[in-house]
Amino acid sequence: MASTKVCSDLILMESICSADMADAMDAQVNNSESCPLLRETLQELRRRVCEPSGSYSPPGRNQPFDSSTSRNWYDWILELFKELLRRLQQKFQKALEWLHQIAATCLQGLRIAAEAVWRVLNDFCSSLEQLFRSLIQV
Questions:
Q1: Residue 31 and residue 28: Cα distance in Å, rounded?
Q2: Could you tell me if 91 and 99 are in contact, meaning their C-beta atoms sit under 8 angstroms apart?
Q3: Cβ neighbours of residue 91 closer than 8 Å, sequence gap 6 or more
Q4: 30-39, 44-53, 86-95, 99-108: lowest mean pLDDT where?
């Protein structure tokens, strides 16, 4: 049936669009010196973007494709295309939310590391100060 073919073609189109957008994202990240991502992070981001989002439903029996109904073939195709765009948008929003979480975790780790370095430097400077005071008093 033609509607089953359309649904399977939409799944293929979604897969191709996701892969093409992931390729564009890879290229952008690789060309950006200010935004290096670990290979593992980039692979996980690609996996999330390219993950299939399910199947598309052919019209039900109560929705025939003829000119006497308000729902015709072109309306159905348009609805499926809108669904495709909605799914792609959701995929990228979820992937972006995940990337924000990764970035926040990374920044928090950097902050903790910087605070630890600061404490060590501060302790070192305090020790030097005490050493110099003791040398001056002698």
A1: 5
A2: no
A3: 18, 48, 49, 51, 53
A4: 30-39
CA distance 66 to 80: 18
Tokens 């669904």: give the residue: 83
Q: What is the pTM of this model?
A: 0.64
- Cα–Cα dist 11/55, whole Å: 7
Return the structure tokens found at 138.
């002698």
Asked whether the beta carbons of 95 and 47 are under 8 A apart, the reply is no
Distance CA 22, CA 72 (A): 34
Q: Which amino acid is it at 15?
A: S
The gap from C-alpha 120 to its chain's centroid, in whole angstroms, comes to 37
